[in-house]
Amino acid sequence: MRLPFRLGLRGELMWLLAGVMLVVAGLFGALWLHTQRSNADARELSADAVRELAREGLLMRGHTLSSQLADAATNPMYYLDLAKLGELARATLRQPDVVYVIIHDADGQVLHDGSGDIPAFGQPMADPMAFEALQAEGPHGQWNDKLLDVASPIRIGGERIGGVRVGLSRDNASRREVEVLGPLEKSLGQANREHLAWILALLAAQFGIAALAMWLLQRRIVQPISELADAAGRMEKGRYGDIELRSERQDELGDLVRGFGRMAEAVARHDRDIRRMAYTDSLTGLSNRLAFREALDDRLLTLQASSGELALLFIDLDDFKRVNDTLGHEAGDEVLGQLSVRIRMTVERLGGQGAEIARFGGDEFIVLFLAEDIRASSGRLAEELIEEVQRPLVLQGRQVFLGASVGITLFPFDASSAGQLLKNADIAMYQAKVAGKGCYRFYSKAMDQAVERRVKLEEELRGAWERGELSLHYQPIYRLADGRPMGAEALCRWEHPRLGVVPPSVFIEVAEQSGLIEALGRHVLVQACQDAATWQQPGLEPPFVSVNISPRQLRTGDLPDVVASALQSTGVLPQQLHLELTETAVLGDEAQASALLSRLRATGVKVWLDDFGTGFSGLSHLRRVPVDGVKIDRSFVADVLRDPDDLALTSAIIAMAHSLGITVVAEGIETEGQYAVLRERGCDQGQGFWLGRPMPANDMRRAFREASGE
Q: Is the four-CA dihedral 68, 367, 325, 433 of positive or negative sign?
């Protein structure tokens, strides 16, 4: 008789153990899946946090650059100062990650992109991001796969006059994501492999060991990963100070915790660096425009509650562009660094602890100043600042002299808002420039009217040549020995349809300050050459035409090319063209001027120094600067019969110039006595109302023909 099958105690135990092991295996399998999900969550949270931080950092930087550029470009845009706009655009282009800069007007037409020739000037922006950029009411970012485009409007008094766009590359941000997430991915992958090995080993152990392993697994693996996930969540919210990750473990999970901790510290440090970059000027270490604006807003809130007073001093360096043009931008940066130290020390000495200093960009600084008698105290501070800037700088083994113009506005007397105070200080600084530079001016409401009139005149001056409102008259220049006309000086006249005749002293200054003088100078040069080409008489020496060249035209460096083009297009002989430059414009930078004038004279064109004797130099400089003639200023000629000193100085100029082989021309001859004295002293040529008044081109041509006997 066969006994029924019996599993037996061992079998039951085995089956029980097998069941337990299956349960344990299921539990460990569930734990493994939970660990995988936790790791995946940690990876995703970490990756999202890093990406968002990188994105926010890039967006913050783009907002900062765009806002700073828009603020800095407000005044140049207001005056359409393309040279200043180009300088601001190029300074922004030199910032890391910046791909392009576009400064446009209110209609979306490009005014400057930081390039030399601005190929897109006057063209509408047609890229996919242009529409949103034009609609932006504040800093507005747009993304694509390659870059971030941040647009900011430019407003004056609530009116939008244009905007700026700054494009930043996303390559560096993407590269930082890979550098940060790579070690994390590697550590998580290694930890996953170790966990799987532990689970397989524990499945072969007894139930007690499995239970103990599960407890250890929960405590030593799942909990640290959960802590990492929580830390990643705090990173995502920017709560870097709440993250404290420490581990004494020497395994991969300990490496992961320490690596995550280092990553959190690096991200926090990067965030601090971004904030420091956003609020500090990297060149001088001073606060930048953004930080100063926030400090000013806070200070105004405090003063409005306490009825306090403050002053804003807007400091602009005089002739700083000459340093960049002659010595290079590195030298210009060194000058700004030295002067920022002087300005800071002066403000700390006179302004007390409550003063704030910032660099607004380029060669502009601004000071927030508090005192009891605010008007008198701010005036004394402005005088000290001007004196400090005027002290010579030692640069590249040579002394450099600069000046400063300061505009001052007072709270609450002039305005109550930060934006209006900054605008007032800028207007007052401009008036200090107009007053001759190297001085300070307090803001007054009359300045607004003066600026408005100047802006209106500048708008009407644009296109005046094309509309036929501008024309040339010619004042004859005679040889004093025999009274024969030798040439004529070209004089620009503006017949305004509403204002009538606008004095040249008014509109030439507007053209010079706005940059319109370069285009106007080209028109005058070509027209004068065209007229002079018609003055030639067969068998006689052709009369010359003299054309005034502004300092701004000289600084551009392309004057020889402009002159060569005018000669070629008009057919006038080179010896018929005389270029008149002021003494201070030529002698202010002898090295550059000598090179340009040598190129001009090599073509046969003559170079004269206008208003000679009124500048800061003497005849000794003429040995180093190649010129063909000098024009004695009319102030000496006017008193040559009454003032022995003027007569002696005029005689000395004539004698010394002749010893150097230089022609002498006298301006402003108004009487026969002046003519006789100058001829007696050997003056070569002269002009003035007694000899001949300015006349249209046709009358001048007729006068030359009559003088030749035709």
A: positive
**More confidently predicted of 381 and 584:** 381
| Phi, psi angle pair for 242, to nearest 5° | -85, -5
**Secondary structure, 3-state, 542-581:** CCEEEEEECHHHHHHCCHHHHHHHHHHHHCCCHHHEEEEE
Query: Do 382 and 335 contact (CB within 8 A), yes or no?
Result: no
Non-local (6+) Cβ contacts of 544 within 8 A are 477, 486, 487, 488, 532, 575, 576, 577, 578, 606
| Residues 6+ away with beta carbon under 8 Å from 94 | none
Residue 380: CB atoms within 10 A of its CB come to: 12
Q: State pLDDT tens for residues 164-223.
A: 999 998 887 667 666 656 665 666 566 566 666 666 666 665 555 655 555 565 566 666
CA dist 438 and 387 (Å) reads 9
- 124: preceding bond cis by omega (within 30 degrees): no
What lies within 8 Å, CB to CB, of 349 at 6+ separation is none
Which runs of consecutive H residues, i.e. helices, occur in 472-628?
A: 504-514, 517-533, 551-556, 559-570, 583-587, 590-602
319 near 404, Cβ under 8 Å? no
Q: Which helix (H) or strand (E) holds 274?
A: helix 252-279
15 - beta bridge partners? none
The predicted model scores a pTM of 0.51
Q: What are phi and psi of 445, to 5 degrees?
A: -65, -25
Q: What is the mean pLDDT of the chain?
A: 81
Average pLDDT over residues 561-584: 89
Collapsing DSSP to helix, strand or coil, 148 comes out as strand
How far apart are alpha carbons 339 and 231 in whole angstroms?
A: 46
Structure tokens given for 685: 């040529």
Mark out the alpha helices in 80-128 (DSSP H runs): 82-93
Distances (CA, A) of 525 to 82, 555, 567: 22, 17, 9
Residues in CB range of 433: below 8 A, 6 or more apart: 316, 318, 405
- Residue 157: pLDDT above 70? yes
- Count the neighbouring beta carbons within 10 Å of the beta carbon of residue 470: 21
Q: How far apart are CA 42 and CA 229, in angstroms?
A: 5
Location of structure tokens 């010579």 = 392
The pLDDT of residue 9 is 34
* Residue linked to tokens 């734990």: 31
* Strands (E) located in 64-108: 98-105
User: CB-based burial of residue 197 (10 Å sphere; 0-12 exposed, 13-18 middle, 19+ buried)?
Assistant: exposed
Q: What burial class does residue 672 get, using C-beta atoms within 10 Å of its C-beta: 0-12 exposed, 13-18 middle, 19+ buried?
A: exposed
468, 494 contact by CB (below 8 A):
no
Buried b (16+ CB within 10 A) or exposed e, 325-342: eebeeebbebbbeebbeb
Q: Which of 92-106, 198-212, 340-354, 534-548 has the lowest mean pLDDT?
A: 198-212
657-686 confidence digits (pLDDT tens): 898 889 999 999 999 999 999 999 999 999
Lowest mean pLDDT among 132-141, 334-343, 531-540, 621-630: 621-630
Q: Which residues contact 437 (CB under 8 A, 6 or more apart)?
A: 318, 319, 403, 405
Q: Is 445 helix (H, G, I), strand (E, B) or coil?
A: helix
